[in-house]
Sequence to fold (179 residues):
Amino acid sequence: MEVKRLKRNFYTQPTLEVAKKLLGKYLVRKIGKEKLIGKIVEVEAYIGPKDRASHAFNNRRTPRNQAEYLIGGHIYIYLVYGMYWQFNISTYQEEKPECVLVRALDLGKLADGPGKVCRYLKLDKSFYGEDLVRSKRIWLEDRGEKINPSEILALPRVGIDYAGPYWSKRKWRFILNKK
Fold:
C-alpha cells in the first residue's frame, strides 16, 4: 500500500469535487509518538458567498470565518453551541471562501458527527488556520483506496433549514456507502 500525503493541488480543485474525493482519505493526527487515524466517510460542502448556509454567505468576513478565505488545505475550526468543535477544510482558491465539513470518520467504529470527530482527534481552536499540507501534527493521506462513484451517496446537508429550501435541499452531503 502506497501512502501519499495530500498536496495543495488536491485541495484547490472545485469544492464539490474535493468533497467527494475526500471520501476514503485518511485523517492523521499526531500526538507525541501516537497517531490517531480515521478514514473519512461523510462530508458536507459549503460554496462560499452564494451559499446561504455558508458562514461566508454574501462575502461575510469575520474573525471566526477568516480561515475560509485561505487557499485550499487549511483548517477552519469553530465551536457550536459553546461545546462542539467542527472541523472544516478550506477548499479552492485564496479569497474564495469555500470549505468542506468532515462529518464522520471510520475508526474501526464510527465517529458519526462533527463533534465526535473533533473529540476523537483532540482538535480545538489551536488548529484554526493550520495548513494540512505542511503541518507536523495533522494531515490527510491517500492510501490508494479506489472509490467508485456508485459508492457515494449524495444527500441534503444537515441542520441548515435557516438557509431556505433551495440551499437546504442541495445534495452536498456525501457519504461513503460501501457495501
Summary: The domain at 4-176 is CATH 3.10.300.10 (3-methyladenine DNA Glycosylase; Chain A). The first helix runs from residue 8 to 11.
